Amino acid sequence: MDAMSNRTKQRRTGGLTLLLYQRTLHPELFKIHASEQVSRRAYEADIWLVEGGHVIMLTAGKNTLTEVIVTNNEPLTDRGLLQSIPCRGEKYHEMTAGENIRYMISTQEEQLTQTLYDATRQEISSYAAKRELMTADLPGSPEQGGSLSVLDIERQSHSLIVHSFHLFDESQMVIKTQAIIEVMKN
């Protein structure tokens, strides 16, 4: 009985939440481990790997869409919050922000056995190193287990495609997302 309730508790703490905002967010809200700025004629974007997830802020003209994926279930702020969606199981979400930003995301959450988790973690870590991807490999602490987060970013002229991998050692949870943020031509 104890082992089962412990597993349920671990699963719940490992889950991520997708928050969508129609504004930029201040960096002080996050513990940023890696960052990148992308500037194209059609858009500008800030991409951050943060503790327990990532942030993508894309601005095209007067419109901004911010994707936040974090372990915290409480919204960071309600101001400008469009949606809050738990990343449990497999999900697909699509929306338009303002008149010119189309957003699509698919998420997949899996809890693996220890052996499969270790192999997956090693494979993603090797893939990230080989392709020189944005990575945050955080060791465990007494308060929190270790984690690995990787972003594979495709910077195109009118869109940003971001594949994310978030792995949590304590719960053997793997969460993968693929987001496409596209600036629509008028």
Q: What would you note in describing this structure?
A:
This protein has 186 residues and is of the alpha+beta class. The chain is built from two helices and twelve strands, in the order H-E-E-E-E-E-E-E-E-H-E-E-E-E. Helix content is 17%, strand content 52%. The strands form two sheets. It has a six-stranded antiparallel beta sheet, with no helix packed on it. A six-stranded antiparallel beta sheet has the order 7-8-12-11-10-9, covered by helices on one side. The model is unreliable at 1-14 (pLDDT under 50).
What layout of secondary structure does this protein have?
Blueprint: H1 2-14, E1 17-21, E2 32-39, E3 44-50, E4 53-60, E5 63-70, E6 81-86, E7 90-97, E8 101-111, H2 114-131, E9 134-138, E10 147-155, E11 159-168, E12 173-183
Antiparallel strand pairs: 1-5, 1-6, 2-3, 3-4, 4-5, 7-8, 8-12, 9-10, 10-11, 11-12
